[in-house]
């Protein structure tokens, strides 16, 4: 039974990853209204018309439905056969976040929502993925969170601050997409050929996100340097910090590529999805570090 639970946990994490990536595609392709203002039907049908936008939107809905059923099965088995409280918390949080984002997605179709609310939809998907990833890790050697050495209090503060701040940066990125502001800054690293452009409209939104992303890179770099200072290369804290730094570096690069691909629709969609995927992986590592700090050995 343990192997089945592990397989379902892995499928849940993979499924949440697909939902997040497909959600980013829906936004980038402006396919959110691909099924009109109907839910769960698509233009009054269970099988929609063969248009690109309806196919993208309906595929996203279908994957959400399948993953939700997998989550329900995983939820039952974890509470029935797994004794670890953290596993029960992770699956519960995943199910709750998935249901909330599904409800928000349905409401966004039936009743138009503001960009502020729509951006939160991606944030909830990110949290659902992070919790599902942590659940999958529970059944691996990386899920043995209990430590034999104490974690410095200052390092704990840095980890949690960075994780929370990264969520804010991700939200700003989602807000850029939902307000269709990506073209506010042409060129990278300069914005419209200026170091500090006129901070209004789409330009102000994009430039704010760029500055926030730069500060996030600095935070994770500092986190990694502190991990190297206090812990050995074999320590999970050192490993997680290293990969968070690698991924935030790739995030910055992919953000630049997204800007450079403006004007090429196919390249813009592809690079936008890659950017969202890298962000999800980075946030997952930061959440993993947060969980490690909760299992600190007491002095």
UniProtKB/TrEMBL annotation:
Keywords tagged on the record: Cell membrane, Disulfide bond, Heme biosynthesis, Iron, Membrane, Metal-binding, Oxidoreductase, Transmembrane, Transmembrane helix
EC number: 1.3.-.-
Keyword Iron found: yes
GO molecular function terms listed in the Swiss-Prot or TrEMBL record: oxidoreductase activity
Chief site of localization: membrane
Residue ranges of the TM segments: 62-82, 89-111, 117-142, 154-174, 207-225, 237-260, 266-295
Membrane topology term: Multi-pass membrane protein
Keyword Aminoacyl-tRNA synthetase (UniProt): no
Source species: Paenibacillus allorhizoplanae
InterPro entries named among the record's database cross-references: COX15/CtaA_fam, COX15/CtaA_HemeA_synthase
Name of the protein this chain belongs to: Heme A synthase
Subcellular location: Membrane
Pathway connected to this protein: Porphyrin-containing compound metabolism
């Amino acid at each position: 039974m343990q192997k089945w639970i592990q397989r379902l946990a892995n499928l849940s994490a993979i499924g949440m990853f697909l939902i997040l990536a497909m959600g980013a595609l829906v936004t980038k392709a402006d396919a959110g209204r691909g099924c009109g203002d109907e839910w769960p039907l698509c233009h009054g049908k269970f099988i929609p018309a063969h248009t690109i936008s309806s196919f993208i939107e309906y595929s996203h809905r279908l994957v959400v439905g399948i993953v939700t059923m997998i989550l329900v099965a995983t939820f039952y088995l974890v509470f029935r056969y797994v004794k670890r409280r953290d596993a029960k918390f992770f699956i519960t949080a995943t199910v709750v976040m998935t249901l909330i984002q599904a409800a928000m997605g349905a409401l966004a179709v039936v009743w138009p929502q503001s960009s502020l609310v729509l951006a939160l939809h991606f944030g909830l998907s990110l949290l659902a993925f992070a919790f599902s990833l942590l659940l999958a890790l529970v059944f691996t050697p990386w899920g043995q969170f209990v430590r034999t050495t104490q974690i410095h209090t200052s390092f704990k503060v840095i980890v949690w601050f960075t994780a929370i701040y990264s969520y804010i940066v991700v939200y700003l990125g989602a807000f850029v997409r939902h307000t269709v502001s990506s073209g506010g800054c042409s060129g990278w690293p300069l914005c419209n050929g200026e170091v500090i452009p006129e901070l209004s409209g789409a330009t102000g939104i994009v430039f704010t996100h760029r500055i926030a992303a730069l500060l996030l890179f600095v935070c994770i770099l500092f986190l990694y340097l502190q991990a190297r200072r206090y812990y050995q290369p074999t320590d999970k804290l050192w490993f997680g910090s290293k990969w968070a730094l690698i991924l935030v570096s790739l995030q910055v690069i992919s953000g630049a590529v997204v800007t450079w691909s403006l004007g090429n629709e196919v390249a813009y969609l592809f690079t936008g999805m890659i950017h969202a995927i890298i962000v999800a992986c980075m946030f997952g590592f930061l959440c993993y570090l947060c969980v490690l700090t909760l299992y600190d050995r007491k002095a």
